[in-house]
């Protein structure tokens, strides 16, 4: 398979991921209406159009651009796909977290439980798209081993993500914006490095 050729399937997948991201962040903007929602309201574009059309189209353009320059940077398409999947994971993670925090409140215990649940759901999204799209491991042989390794390394990532998010939440101000956006944002950056290296070098390594 030519890793440097932008295929129709790549366009379809990135549009699907773009819709996931757009829907999740549309929900986040509704929950975070005092901050993010207020900012979105200043943009002269209807929120539904921005999230459900603008985000997928922007994602498609970004991936296409990554493929266009892949002759000089052959690793870029794979990183771009990993980032796209990662953004969709983050959107699912943060979207569920914010939707859960709205009725549950900002208590540290409920925050940790909600964060663990949202991260676990996002992990299912991560395994599917990273296996079959980012790292293109189509073989069914050894799938059980891959899944076991994936969840083992992701469990470590879960500990890093939830632990870091909870730590940042405790250290920061007791506000919905910090708990729902900034704390998980810092945690996502930290766990993303772990995830990419462990998936590429161990879990989906091509033999």
SSE blueprint and pairings:
Blueprint lengths: L7 H24 L1 H9 L5 H22 L7 H29 L3 H27 L8 H29 L4 H28 L4
Please describe the structure with a list of short key phrases separated by commas or semicolons:
81% helix; 7 helices; 207 residues
How would you briefly describe this protein structure?
With 207 residues, this protein is mostly helical.
Explain the overall architecture.
This protein is mainly alpha-helical and 207 residues long. It has one domain (8-203). Helix content is 81%, strand content 0%. The protein has helices at 8-31, 33-41, 47-68, 76-104, 108-134, 143-171, 176-203. α1 (8-31) packs antiparallel against α3, α5 (108-134) packs antiparallel against α6 (143-171) and α6 packs antiparallel against α7. The two termini are 16 Å apart. The model has no long low-confidence stretch (mean pLDDT 86).
Main sheet summary: none
> How does the helix and strand content classify structurally?
mainly alpha
Distance N to C terminus: 16 Å
Mean pLDDT: 86
Q: Based on Cα principal axes, name the global outline.
A: globular
User: How many distinct helices?
Assistant: 7
Q: pLDDT below 50 for ≥5 consecutive residues: which ranges?
A: none
Percent helix, as a range, is over 70%
Radius of gyration: 18 Å
In terms of DSSP E residues, the strand content is under 5%
The structural domain count equals: 1
Strand elements, count: 0
Written as H for each helix and E for each strand, in order along the chain, the element string is HHHHHHH
